[in-house]
Amino acid sequence: MGADGAPGSGDAERTRQLLADALPAVWLVLLAALLGPLWRWPPPDLPPPPVTFFSPRAYPEALAAHTHLGMVYVTSPAQLRDSLAVARRHGSRLQLDFSTVLLQDRAPARIDRRYRDALGQWHTKSFAPLPEGKLKDVPADDALALRMASYWPVLQAYRAQVDTLFLIDEPYMHGVSHDELGRAASRVRSLMLQHGLRRVQLGVVFSGAMFDAGFARHVADGAHALADEVERYHQRAQREADPQHAAWAARFARERLTTYDLAGNLYAGGGIPREFDVVAYNLYTATLLQDAVHRRTLAWFAELGASPACQPFKGSDLRDWRQRLSFYRDGPVQADQAGDRRLLAAVFRCKTESVHALLQAQPARPGRRFQLWGESSANGFLEFDARGHVDAEQPELLVAARVDDEVARTLAFLGRHADFYRAGLVFFVYDDTVDPSIGLHIQGASHMPAVMARVFRAAGKAPP
């Protein structure tokens, strides 16, 4: 059986029951928040949660001047030193993602090639796993320590600028299990203590609500459905001697969406290892609009019942509601900004309120902080044709306005839940970047002045 296991019937119902069981604790938290000032006077003067951008390659001076916190991928000791030096000059701190350093590609022989069809029958995929795909493994403890060895002197030299080490980005989507994630955190924690980094925290970013087993099984089912769709097309085209099939098969064998390989290999057990001090999640509107795994995610949230905003999506498929957006249509641009705003606001509320509820239902751990990730990339708000292909010509100001709306929604959500997301808000992404796992060019916010101004105002750091 693959890492995601057999399909669970009634996952949304079981998750809904877990939410119901957690409600007394949630009400106590809300009551304490409301009544706290009555027995604590004066009330604690907490600073607002930090707001920043994720800037994968480095922490640039232009960003450091406006933000108290930054986040970068770590790729080498020299690159790490350069970003920490910028943070020191500007009185900032950094969150450091060590995924590239710590993880190793899963060997193709260790990747489960089975998928499950709509009837629950298991089959073998026709195409071999890609050699450098999204599936990863955590090295053994000794190898993990060796991979980290050259970074400790830099981290020690700039310890005042180091906020949190994020070890594995979206671990369960990469096939890393709960136990392996916890093992990695325990080993790195031990190494941190050996090097005197007692105040540095450990963090993890989950894709959507993958920390919830019901949601994770829903995503795993979506991956199986996509693999099944690919296989049914492949087999039908072979039978019918489709003249375009050979070219398609050759292209699919060497480059494709990672979801095909993920089917049967996602970790769908959920849970958050206790070793982590900071827990974050991302679920971008672009993902819901474009990733076939999430065709029925809003419908799943509607069944969960955590957000009234989800009810219009009950029983819906991605294609049912995406066609209502004016920027997913054939022909020239015919923007319906008011209609798009209403629908995108409903999508935003549905996804954020649902994942927020699932996060609140997780077992508490003293001292743990939560972090929200928001969307500042243009990719989900470009002009597309009805099939979801990007148009060649783009109305840049209109696209930027859609991004700005999404940023405003996210900041408003943070404002309503600032006491919960004390670790702040990270917008993805600052500058243009590339997702190497799928070769996707991602358009960042640095070219959108209104978006930059809004985020920098929220960050609240006066530039020198």
Description:
This protein has an 8-stranded parallel sheet with strand order 1-12-11-10-9-8-3-2. The protein is built from 16 helices and 14 strands. Helix 5 packs across helix 7 (178-194), helix 12 packs across helix 14 and helix 14 (337-360) runs parallel beside helix 15. The longest helix is centred in the N-terminal third of the chain and has 29 residues, at 11-39. The chain is α/β, with parallel strands linked by helices and 464 residues long. The protein has helices spanning 11-39, 61-64, 77-89, 99-102, 141-148, 152-157, 178-194, 213-239, 245-254, 259-262, 285-290, 297-304, 318-322, 337-360, 396-416, 449-459, and strands at 51-53, 69-73, 93-97, 104-105, 114-116, 122-124, 136-137, 162-169, 201-207, 278-282, 369-375, 425-428, 433-435, 440-442. It has a single domain (11-459), classed as Glycosidases (TIM Barrel).
